[in-house]
Write the structure tokens for this entry.
Amino acid sequence: MKKLFSYLFFIAVSSNIYAQPTSSPIDKKATKETKALYKNLRSLMSKGIMFGHQDDPAYGVNWKYQPGRSDIKDITGDYPALYGFELGRIELDHTLNLDSVPFDSARRYIEQAYARGGVITISWHLNNPLNGEVAWAPEPGRAVASVLPGREKNTLYKSWLDKVATFVLSLKGKNGEPIPVIFRPFHELNGNWFWWGKDHCTPQEFEQLWHLTVSYLKDKKNIHQILYAFSTDKFSSKEEYLAKYPGDEWVDIIGFDSYQRKGGAEGNADYIKAMDTMLTMLDEIAVEKNKIPALTEFGYSEIPDSTWWTNVLYKAIGHHKISYMLAWRNAGYKSPTETEYYVPYKGQASEKNFIKFYQMPNILFQKNINYKMIYQTVPLSPSKYKLNK
Ligand code: BMA
């Protein structure tokens, strides 16, 4: 009897949100690799946070398009565990995305990363369908409404989704299987800079836009290799976070984007506090809604603080259970007044400290994962499979 009680107690304490057997992607027809990814994103949370980088294999601060290269690899000898890619301008049939990455190269990088067990997430800074300008040119009250069913830009918007669909469907593993991707459209929706932003549509309109997008890709285009990520910008309450949440049946992953903009001791302390507060709220929402939490974009451009990785970032996130974190792109030189990068390159001030961060046992890179652990179904108990650390 005593044994039975201790067994029941063990079951009770060991069952947590990271191992809920009932949870599965919102797409009931998700491919087997997509289901495995979903499950493993969840179960790996008990080991740590997967580290990701936008456009990592495409370019770095002082280089572009050199096969196999990565700023992270230059420093650590290792690749990230997760990669972000961008589809902006695919809607216009361009061959290069808005950051000049050829879509054909992005496809190749995705295939290579997938073969290593890397996780892929895709953003889409799509143009404003109403005025034909960039994503950052809102038409308050009109642009989101214009693409909804029966409205003037609905057909145009669906033709844009057709192009996204063609790209996603072209992503294949070596046995011809569809490569799973985490699609994160309409991000930072609680800010006002994008045409889908806070004051530019009602919650109902945003919800309709989201539903239209997901059901078009999933049911009309029959794409079953997508996990859908909902991601806001920084937020100050759960109510704010959920103001335009499109519903549990429409979202797999929940996250937010948060950048450090202010330097010095005060800037560091503010960032730690803000991140910690937001991650605590995100953790709670994830438990309540049974969703996978992630830090969908983060960074401190040019990382002027040489100990930022362990003294600021790790302090803010290290004790939180999140599936992954995506550092934004190492664009490098953009103009005489602007340089942009979020992970160090060789010789950058925070390089050594990044290596320390890389060695933290709960920060996961390529060396901590492999194809099997991510894309093949494994027993839910993390102790059943080996991490390399
Ligand atoms: C922004 C900047 C831009 C880029 C855009 C989309 O944060 O990095 O240079 O065009 O993201 O990737």
